[in-house]
Design goal:
Shape: globular
Strand content: 25-35%
Largest sheet: 4 strands, mixed
Helix content: 10-25%
Structural class: alpha/beta
Oligomer: single chain
Strand order of the largest sheet: 6-7-9-8
Distance between the termini: 28 Å
Low-confidence stretches: none
């Protein structure tokens, strides 16, 4: 039930990677890449693994992040190889070809806990193949060195994408939205 097309997942957190591999066994169109992170250039970094796992990041947590959820508590770190989407373009297009997907369109989903802009910087050529971008944007950054949501919107729209829709993401008990999930399209559907 749900999405029936090809999914290619990239996950740096080794614990989350194992979960994805297990879930993907039930779906012949779900390809899990080996564990690594994405960024603006190829390098090695350290991933802070948080108690809730989904807030794990390559960036240090801000005071806002620490005070927002206990789940932001760092419980471990692990080394991570960082690659760029540009360096993976041929590989990713080859996977699409291997699955014999005709008339495909690529939606790039980025949820990288403050590291989204770095991933986009490493995807200049790859974005030429991408029809839509689904990205998590922080209204109030939880991680240091995170660009504001407005700066990321400006960057994406400078690459000839337009905002298609957005939804409320992580929200505090008070009702204050801290993150939004935005979708940008290079080919907008007419009303």
């Amino acid at each position: 039930n749900g999405y029936k097309g090809l999914i290619i997942s990239i996950e740096a957190n080794p614990l989350m990677h194992k979960i994805l591999v297990s879930r993907a066994k039930k779906d012949k169109y779900w390809h899990i890449m080996p564990p690594f992170g994405l960024g603006r250039s190829e390098s090695y970094s350290s991933l802070d693994i948080t108690k809730n796992s989904v807030s794990s990041s390559l960036l240090p947590v801000t005071k806002t992040g620490v005070s927002s959820l206990e789940g932001f508590k760092i419980i471990d770190t692990c080394p991570v190889k960082i690659l760029t989407l540009d360096s993976l373009t041929s590989k990713l297009l080859g996977i699409i070809n291997d699955y014999a997907v005709d008339n495909y369109s690529i939606q790039l989903k980025i949820d990288a806990e403050g590291y989204e802009y770095n991933i986009l910087l490493g995807a200049t050529d790859f974005l030429k193949h991408v029809t839509s971008i689904n990205i998590e944007l922080s209204i109030e950054p939880f991680h240091e060195e995170t660009l504001s949501y407005r700066e990321i919107i400006d960057f994406i729209t400078s690459k000839n994408y337009r905002l298609f829709s957005f939804d409320r993401g992580f929200t505090l008990n008070s009702g204050r939205a801290m993150q939004i999930d935005a979708i940008f399209s290079s080919t907008l559907i007419s009303p």
